Amino acid sequence: IFGGQQSDITAQPWQAALSVYRSRSKVYTFFCGGVLIDSCWVLSAAHCFNDGFHPKDLKVTLGRTYRLQNSSSEQIFEVEQYWVHEQYDNSTFDNDIVLLKLKSDIGMCAIYTPEVHPACLPEQNLVLPDWTECEISGYGKEQEFSPFYSDRVKRGHVRLWPQSQCVPERLSGHLTTPNMICAGDTRGLDDACKGDSGGPLVCPKEGRFTLIGLISWGDGCGKKDTPGVYTRVPQYINWINRKMQDNNN
Ligand code: 4AZ
C-alpha cells in the first residue's frame, strides 16, 4: 500500500497472504493478496496465477499482522484447487478474478476469530454511489520501485470513481472494461501497489464492510489523478456461488 497506515490484522481480518513454494530456493515466497469470503474459500486476482502454479505449491496465510512473522493468531492452509475465471484476459486484465478452495479433511477450514474473519459479499450487480469512501489493504510495496514488500499489513482510504473518469487518458493509455472499477484517494495519498493485487477493496454497505473490488492493476502507485483499477466483484457473485456450490463435493 502506497501511503495509508500500518494496520493490525483485526482491522481487516479477511486479508490473506498468498505464497508459493520455490523449489530453487526451497522457501515459500509471498506473491499476492487474497480475500477470505468463507471458511474454505478465498478470492484473489487471476493475473497472480499467470505462472500456472500447481495448487500443491501454494499456501494461504490468514491472521498475520506481520507478513513474515509467525503469530499465535495465524491460520495457514494449503490449496485444494483454484479456478481462474474462464473469460480472464491476460492482455487487458478483464475478469481478473480467481477462486481458491482451501484444503481441509473436515469440511471446515478457517476458524473465525478477531484476526480471521470473512468479508461480506455484495448482492449481484450492486452499484454504490460515486465517491463512496472505501478501504484497501495489503502487504504490498509502499513505493512503486521499492525492492521490498511491506513487513506489516497496511490499509488505505480510497473513494470509488465515476466510470466516466476511469478512462485511458488517466491510465497511461490502458482501457478499462465494465468489469473494472476505479478507486483513488482524492487527496492523492493512498493507493494500492505491487504485491497488493488480489487483496480487498471493501466499502460500507448497511453498516458492514462489503467486498466491492479486488486489487488488480494501475499506472504505478500513488500518481496524481491516477486511480487504482479493481475487479468489480458484484459482477461475479453468480460465478462465485456457482463455483462454490459445484465444488462442495
Ligand atoms: C501491481 O503491480 C499493482 N496503483 C497493483 C495495483 C496498482 C498498481 C500496481 C494500483 O500489482
Describe the model:
The protein has 249 residues and is mainly beta. It is 4% helix and 35% strand. It is built from 1 helix and 13 strands; from the N terminus they run βββββββββββββα. It has one helix spanning 237-246; strands spanning 5-6, 15-22, 27-38, 41-44, 58-62, 75-84, 98-102, 133-138, 154-160, 180-184, 200-205, 208-218, 228-232. The chain has a 6-stranded antiparallel beta barrel with strand order 8-9-10-13-12-11. A 6-stranded antiparallel β-barrel has the order 2-3-4-7-6-5. The N and C termini lie far apart (37 Å). The mean pLDDT is 97. 4-(aminomethyl)benzoic acid binds at residues 191-194, 196-197, 215, 217-218, 221, 228.
Mind sketching the topology for me?
Layout: E1 5-6, E2 15-22, E3 27-38, E4 41-44, E5 58-62, E6 75-84, E7 98-102, E8 133-138, E9 154-160, E10 180-184, E11 200-205, E12 208-218, E13 228-232, H1 237-246
Antiparallel strand pairs: 1-9, 2-3, 2-5, 3-4, 4-7, 5-6, 6-7, 8-9, 8-11, 9-10, 10-13, 11-12, 12-13
